[in-house]
Structure formats: structure tokens, C-alpha cells
Sequence to fold (212 residues):
Amino acid sequence: MVQSERAPLPIVVLLSGSGSNLQAIIDAAQAGLPVDIRAVISNKAEAYGLERARQAGIPTQVLSHKDYADRDSYDAALAALIDGCQAQLVVLAGFMRILSDGFVRRYEGRMLNIHPSLLPRHRGLDTHARALAAGDDEHGATVHFVSPELDAGPIIIQARVPVQAGDTPQALAARVLREEHRIYPQAIRWFAEGRLTLEQGRALLDGQPITP
Ligand code: GRF
Fold:
């Protein structure tokens, strides 16, 4: 099937904060990225990303952990929302929650995350400050398939930026974020076009293993 005949891929975006990556995906979709953003879901009612979604006419949902007894019941409610949208891809865009193994397995091969470092360096939080403290001369961002181990799933695409003399974590973060806004829509495009798959724990593009 040629791309123009393919229906847009139904996706959901999960976020907790500003949603600048969501905005990049919205902008890309308006410019032809073949996705249909069915919903934006946040664990934080005050996340600015929800406002971005509303402005783009995308349905929003807030799911607060305070309404659930434990992680499994929260994740079950989250999965029900996602599946209710018939989403074929789950896009984590600054969703600041640890996901249960069961949830991750349910969406194995169809859930992406973006992390602000050159994985496997600097998993976890405060990556920009840690890159500076480590004296790294380059830094960046990584899009990867989500696997049960945090920030350790198969890598799809990375963007590198130089660390410059006098950088603050904020300046470095801004430089990285500009690259995030480029590589996340790119990875989503590959997936939507059926070119990107996860097979036996490896990310493949056009059937070939991706070697970052
Ligand atoms: C980004 O730095 C992303 O790499 C990380 O969370 C941040 C989200 O930023 N996972 P935004 O909400 O998309 O602006």
C-alpha cells in the first residue's frame, strides 16, 4: 500500500508537563505526519500540555494517582483509556510516572519514549545537570521503545548537541529540546509508515537493526 492510501495512525500522547514535544507532534501532524492524535492524557491537571491539546481540538483526559489505590489499578485505568481510543501507538512525552511491568508488556513494540540524554548515558532525572557535572563534551536526546527497565529500551534515533563552555542546565536543556522536537516526529513517522518495528528485543528500520 502506498503511503497516501494508508489511514492516519491512531495515537495517544501521555504527558505531565509543558508538552513542547506534543506541540511538535501536533505541528508535524498538521504538516502531513500521518497520525490521528485521539487523546492527550495527563496525570497532572495543571500540565500545560493539556492546554496545547485543547487549542488543537484534541480530547484530553486527566488521570490522578490520588484516585487509585495502587500502581496496578492506576495502570489498568490508563490502559482502559488508551484502548478506548483504539490507539495503535502510545507516545510518552514527558510522562513522569513509573509504569508497571504489566502495562509496559501490554504495549510492547507500540510504546515510545523520549529521554533527554544520549542513552545509555544518564538514565533517570536531571540529565542536563548530570551531563555538565560529568564534563561531557556532547549531550543529546534519545527516542526508544519502552521496555520494563527504565530508560533502557531499544534505541530508535538519537540527536547529539555540543556542550558549550559556560552552559547551564537550562541552556543545555533548550539546545536538546530543539532536537527532541525534530527526532520525535521522525520516529513516529517511521512507525506510522510501518517502517519501524520491535522484533526479539531489537528496533528495526526497514527490517534492518538500528545501531545508534
Ligand atoms: C523532555 O525533556 C523529554 O525528553 C522528557 O521530558 C521532557 C518533556 O518536555 N521525557 P515537554 O513537556 O515535551 O516540553
About this structure: The helical segments are 20-30, 48-55, 71-84, 101-106, 127-133, 169-192. The beta strands are 9-15, 35-42, 60-62, 89-92, 111-115, 138-145, 155-162, 196-199, 202-205, 208-209. Residues 15, 17-21, 49, 93-94, 114-116, 141, 177, 180 surround 5-O-phosphono-beta-D-ribofuranosylamine (CB under 6 Å).
